[in-house]
Amino acid sequence: MASTIISRIPRGNSKFARKVPSRFPHPTTKFIQPKDRIKKWNIRPGDRVRMTTGKAKDVFRNGENSSEGWKVYTVKTVDLARNRVFLEGITNKKAQPVPPLPDNYDTLEGQEKTNVDNAPNFIDIMRPVHYSNVQLCVDESGEVDQHVFASRLKSQETHFNKYTQRLEWRRVAPKLTGTVAAETHLEETDMPWPKPEKIYEFPDPDRNDTHNDEVRKRTLHLIDVPLIASTSGYDALFPTHLLAPPLQNQAVSDGYLTSVRDPEHFDDATRRIADTLMPLHLSEELSPRWARGRQRKAWGVRREREEEERRVVGKDAVREWEAGGKDRGLKDILDLEQISLEGVNLRPRTRAEVRDAAQTSYMVENAEKQAEVYQNRRAGMTFDLGSGEWVEGEKAVEIERKRRRRERKERRKAEKMVYLRLEQGENMVVPEAVRA
């Protein structure tokens, strides 16, 4: 198949539009996928490292080979998103536009005019070096050609520091390169972290800062549940179950703000009621019941309670079984003539079997109760605490009304089909049963 010559760059709606052909010179992508980024950095700003690749003048001290030693650089900063480090002294010269001549150029003296003419038009930009192209310097106290470097680094004892709120670990060098003793190669060398050049100092407080005593002072006083339940207006203002509608009455918030703004027009009882109900109002406003976090937490609490009840049921069943003599009378029952199991060898039950049977029975009963609650909720029923039974609620009445309406529509449709009558028209064949 003969190859076609591309005469122009694709444009318009083509899928190749706005894409530079690979034959053209273009910069490579600098974005590193999150899965390819280094998780634990063992090189930080302040470390002394050497470059393992690059130009000879940047790697070796003599600019040719390693006979006189390697150049050691200080890490200035790191780029966590690109797996790059910036070394102090490794720069690129970037050209910049020549600045325009000053307005008083003609009036300048000889030396000043020469300085303007010879002003450099380039600046030094730090060049990034890949993380894998540097090695940490372990010891540079000896001669320049006898420095010790870590050819491998690994992290140990990873833990979370609750004071700094970050992960920390200890870095070690399992393998060294350079003039080191033979026994040093057999043990891991601990590599301390570099100390910061400048310790952060907190600024002096000013008039806009809050004093520590005021910060530590407790301003939220939660009210006990019995007092909240006995407060008038609680049932009408706040939901009493998970499926209740959201807040509709803003009287609590309005009364609270008014009492704070103008406390003289409110007595102590009204102010106490507002202070009692306001935390509940804020909790419902800022963290609603249908939030994912609260639903997950409630689900976890229910599971913990079910697991605790299941353990208690198992313990009680084992205790009752042991108090009743275990299965001591089982053999006498099997020997009865009505049972007709003489000679059958049945071993007594163990504690684990009794406990598992009781817990399984509890889980089955609990699942049946949950299914009953789900069906009643779906049918619009509400649970009456006084009678202890499920009664019809507003939703159940609405469901029944819709069901009757649906049946009425179906009945009318069927009646309409029964009494259907059609008039005879041109080019029509109408059966006699439905002919008008």
TrEMBL record:
Domain of life according to the entry: Eukaryota
Record's keyword annotation contains Ribosomal protein: yes
Keyword Ribosomal protein: yes
Gene3D superfamilies: 2.30.30.30
InterPro entries cross-referenced by the UniProt entry: Rib_uL2_dom2 (IPR014722), Ribosomal_uL24_KOW (IPR041988), Translation_prot_SH3-like_sf (IPR008991)
Keyword line: Ribonucleoprotein, Ribosomal protein
The name this protein goes by in its record: Uncharacterized protein
UniProt organism field: Cryptococcus wingfieldii CBS 7118
